[in-house]
Structures are given as C-alpha cells and as structure tokens.
C-alpha cells in the first residue's frame, strides 16, 4: 500500500465513460482518492484523452506485443507499482486477467458490468437482456477473480427493461447507473467498509 492508500489505476480499452465518472468523483471530492495512472491496450481509445484532460498520466500497452497473457500482465504490474497503485479499476478493459495480475492485487481489482450478475455475462450484456426478454437488468460492481464476470459482488443497481427498449436505449440507462455505482463501490473498498466472506461481500456502514 502507498502512504495514502488511495491511488487508483484505471484500465480501459474504449471511450472511458466510467473513467470519466471516477475522475469527476475525485474532482468533486465525493471520492477521496486520486487516479495515478490510466492504462489502455488500445492506442486509439478515447478514454486516454479524458485522462490527459484531467492531468492523469497515461500508458498504452498493446497486448499484441507480448507472447502471453502472463507476460502482458507482468508488465501491467510493473507500471501499476511504479505509480504506487493501491486499487485497480477495470473500466471497459477488454482483456481477461491472468492469475499473475490477480495475485499481485488480491481482492483489489474491481470491474463494472452492465447486467445484474450472474445474469448475462460476457460481451453485449444489454443485447442479451433484450433478446432474452428480461424485465429487469442493471449494473454490477464486483471483485475480479479468474472467471469471467464472476467475482464477489460489491454493489448492484437494477434498471427496468422497457417494452420498447433496444440494446442502445437500455445501454444508455444502465450507463447512467454505472456512473453513480462505480465511484461509490470504489469508496467502500478504499474505506475498508467491504469485507469478503466467501462468495459474499458484507458492507459495513455502506450508506
């Protein structure tokens, strides 16, 4: 842990709207932390510009330049440690993490997913919900483990699926909830209010 214990490393692959929500929460003081580094495996990711506008250092690290996921993750760890990162936040990072990275940050890697897990894991969760005919979907923040969208759940927020919804409209309404949910979940972890008990996360004074 760094001296402050509140340095975030955010990993992205795309537009970085959840990164922006984190940056905004830090800027307003509703999240008592700092973003130490934003890392992307995609050089053209729009989220990199969001980080630069906020004065946050960025690194582009293409996974194509590495022979294995483990080698790629070793390099990520080096970068995160260089920036004294305490908590890793996946914000649209389209890569599965290897045990190498998970062991380096045990119970300190968070992800946000646009469904009420364990429903609709993987890509296009909103499309899955509409196609399935679900009446309720939502957003989930969870701790990351070795399985896809599987780790212990920190927070969830339900979003009704309306009769005229398509993937785009449902995605927009879920994203609004994601932007509120993710900074809140990060704060709970940083404040030591989230305790893992097997598959469950017990929130202490989480209001």
Overview of the molecule:
It is built from six helices and nine strands; from the N terminus they run E-H-E-H-E-H-E-H-E-H-E-E-H-E-E. 34% of the residues lie in helices and 24% in strands. It has helices at residues 17-28, 47-53, 69-82, 99-104, 125-132, 167-190; strands spanning 7-12, 34-40, 58-60, 87-90, 109-113, 136-143, 153-160, 194-197, 200-203. Strand 8 and strand 9 form a beta hairpin. The chain has a seven-stranded mixed beta sheet with strand order 3-2-1-4-5-6-7, sandwiched between helices. The chain has two domains: 1-106, 3-Layer(aba) Sandwich (Rossmann fold); 111-207, Rossmann fold. The two termini are 25 Å apart.
Gist of the model:
With 207 residues, the protein is α/β, with parallel strands linked by helices. It is built from 6 helices and 9 strands, in the order βαβαβαβαβαββαββ.
Query: What number of domains?
Result: 2
What string, H for helix and E for strand, traces the elements in order?
EHEHEHEHEHEEHEE
For the biggest β-sheet, the strand order reads 3-2-1-4-5-6-7
Gyration radius, to the nearest Å? 16 Å
Q: What does the average pLDDT come to?
A: 95
User: In percent, how much strand structure appears in the residues?
Assistant: 15-25%
Please give the CATH class of the largest domain: Alpha Beta
From the 3D coordinates, which CATH architecture of the largest domain would you assign? 3-Layer(aba) Sandwich
CATH fold assignment of the largest domain: Rossmann fold
Any low-confidence stretches, pLDDT <50, length ≥5?
A: none
